[in-house]
Each structure stands twice: as C-alpha cells, then as structure tokens.
Amino acid sequence: MNYQVVMLAALLMLAAVGCTPNRSPEVTTAVGELKVELTPVELTYSIRQGKFNPFPARFRITNLSSTPCSIAVWSCSYFEHWRTDSKEVSIGDWSCDSNILGSRLLTATNDYNGDLPLVVKPTTKGRQITLRLAFSPATKSMFGKPLEGVIGGTYWSNEIKITVTE
Q1: Fold of 3-165
Q2: For the chain, what are the domain ranges?
Q3: What φ, ψ does residue 91 adopt, rounded to 5°?
Q4: Average pLDDT of every residue of the chain
Q5: What is the DSSP letter of 39?
Q6: Tell me: the pLDDT tens digits for 89-128?
Q7: Is residue 150 within 8 Å of 72, Cβ to Cβ?
Q8: pTM, whole model, 2 decimals?
Q9: Is the dihedral of CA 68, 69, 73, 79 positive or negative?
C-alpha cells in the first residue's frame, strides 16, 4: 500500500478525535481544541457602503491541540458555516463560479484563515456595535450524507467592536 495513503488515513482517524467543539455561546473564545479569531479590517464602517460593499473581517481558525484534525468547509457558502450573535449584522454573500466542499487539515502550525463579508444594518448608524461570530464546520455532503473524518460543533470567536458612521 502507498505510504502517502496510509499516512492520510492515519491523519483522518486522528482528526475524528483530535479537536473538540466549544458549544457554549457565553465563552468569548473557543476553549476546546479550536480557536476562532476575528479581526476587523477597519474599526469604522460607513453605512453608505451598503450591501454591495460589505464590512470585511478576517478570520483565523487555529488548532490548539498537538493532534491534527480536519474540518470541512464550502468554498463559497460562508453563510453555511458562520453566524453572528448580533441582530444588526449578517454574513454577506458574493458571486461564485463553483461551490465545492473541501477538507482542511489543521495542525499546530497550519491554520485556516480568510476574509468574511459582514453586512451591517442601516439602523446602527451613529453607534458602536459589538459582535461575535460562530463557526460551524460542515458535517454533511451536499446530498445530506454524513462526512467521515471531519469534526463538527460550533466554535465562537472573540468579540469585536465596530463604529458605524453615515
């Protein structure tokens, strides 16, 4: 049997038990094996930017364990994985040519990161809003079949503050 195939199978088996979710929305940062960090690109957002120019935030998901684990994520459907604890902010969307479910191997040195478009309601104009995001990796295929070798659960980010201007 091919050495790479054996190593991949071993990593996937470890992945099933390597990371544990933090299910408590009261905790600011995931205390389990994954940590979700959220960083606003800017500290102020002009409401004039509107839905077609959402507020960008950067995310970083870190495996705090020495055991590798895999998460499954859609290439375009971020709204499938993310939700906010604020009624004033939603996850934005964008055009996408091909939405593919892929697996990301997280190790102590390999993070999953990217940018997330956030849409802020116009009613927040002139205020500072506070929010956290919850990340939930995919656990089922597009046909509803359970995925093997990936972790599920919900992981909460740190809290961020955004000042909304006109």
Answers
A1: Immunoglobulin-like (2.60.40)
A2: 3-165
A3: -85, 130
A4: 79
A5: E
A6: 988 877 788 889 999 999 888 999 999 988 888 888 899 9
A7: yes
A8: 0.76
A9: negative
